[in-house]
Task: inverse folding
């Protein structure tokens, strides 16, 4: 007797969702690195300011790549819509972060930096869930 076939409840991660997982993880580590560099700026370490400024540009680029991949993966049904929605929010927030950081608006830059961790935590949970 043949056993009835049972449809899998979760789809195995395809190349696109695996790529998104990697990019999101790198982005989260990038924001963490920015916080570490911010600590070095406040500690007066030479060059930390320039490294944080350059790091900011890199984090913006990563969040843009993440957004593009998340939209394509969502349209193909590989990830839920919220992966694209959170990625869009993160991209906008990180661009704002770049400008308020460059403008020295720390009253916004510090809380927004903390909020970015919340956004990335939610994004990591979304893309790494089984
Ligand atoms: C995640 C994306 C981030 C971006 C795009 C970003 C961007 C920037 C930029 C462009 C500057 C100016 C650098 C310069 O003057 O050369 C700056 C300064 C600074 N950022 Fe960020 N930043 C980010 C995250 C963070 C985080 C997470 C924190 C801390 C929680 C932080 C704390 C600071 C501090 C303390 C300064 C120095 C201000 C000063 O020199 O007076 N940043 N940031």
Result:
């Amino acid at each position: 007797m043949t056993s009835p076939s049972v449809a899998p409840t979760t789809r195995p991660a395809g190349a696109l969702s695996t790529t998104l997982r990697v990019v999101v993880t790198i982005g989260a580590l990038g924001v963490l690195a920015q916080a570490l560099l911010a600590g070095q700026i406040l500690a007066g370490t030479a060059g930390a300011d320039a490294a944080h400024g350059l790091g900011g540009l890199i984090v913006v680029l990563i969040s843009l790549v993440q957004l593009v991949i998340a939209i394509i993966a969502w349209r193909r049904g590989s990830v839920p819509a919220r992966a694209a929605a959170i990625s869009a929010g993160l991209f906008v927030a990180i661009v704002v972060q770049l400008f308020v950081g460059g403008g020295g608006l720390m009253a916004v830059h510090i809380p927004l930096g903390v909020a970015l961790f919340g956004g990335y935590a939610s994004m990591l949970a979304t893309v790494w869930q089984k």
